[in-house]
Amino acid sequence: TAQGWVKELPEADQRRMWDGYLDILVDIHSLDPMKLGLDFLAKPELGPTPLDQELAYYENFYRWASDGDIHPCVEPALEWLHANKPPQPRTLSLVWGDGRVGNMIFDGPKCLAVIDWEMARLGDPMMDLAWGLFLTRYHTEGSGVPNLPGFRDREATIAYYEQKSGRSAEHVAYYEILAGMRFSVILIRLAKQLKHYEALPQEVNFEVENPVSMLHRKQLEALGVL
To answer: What's the pLDDT score for residue 103?
Structure first.
């Protein structure tokens, strides 16, 4: 969204790229993870449902990464996420986990492959759609630049996904809050590592003062949580 070959593409090719990304999500979510032998992605030791497992995973991650520090957004977000869990889908889907345009390999606007599967899960496809929406907000509002003219806005992206997948995105807003919390926790760990390797001064509070956490704060303020 800031510079480079994607920004320089004609608007029609940008639209092909964006819609191709959403088509890939639909294809991934239509797979049967059990037939593919991906049942190992479930973490029943963390909770009875995939969402319970995801919340427990990131709560554990947060406690470990923060090393006793309190993040002013993550704590209230976790409380809200536990208190407002949506119904879980009857059938589990393969969730890419880090699904976004930046994790796709292209030949022009055509996607050839998707990469970065270390966050893969079994669960609700809305987790992927919401992650892409939050990352788009990060690369636009969070970076101080407009969206590309060929990339669909939030409402049009949701509508396209619903039409192509036949799924309801009724609860995608919940998963956008989850996405903000997840990314904020990841940046806590990144900040600690940067300080450990002396790439950041110890006095810089990058754990909290970063574009992701600021967007996450806006999410929670809109909910009335902060």
So the answer is: 96
CA–CA separation, 148 vs 142, rounded Å? Answer: 14
pLDDT given for residue 108 in this prediction: 93
Name all contacts of 113-119 with Cβ < 8 Å and 24+ positions apart.
Answer: 114/24, 114/28
pLDDT tens for 191-225 read 999 999 999 999 999 999 999 999 999 999 999 99
Both tokens of 12, joined, read 């029609």
Q: Are 16 and 109 in contact (CB under 8 A)?
A: yes
> Which tokens belong to 77?
């977000």
Q: How far, CA to CA in Å, does 5 sit from each of 58, 96, 104, 132, 224?
A: 35, 25, 14, 20, 40
The answer to whether the CB of 63 falls within 8 A of the CB of 71 is no
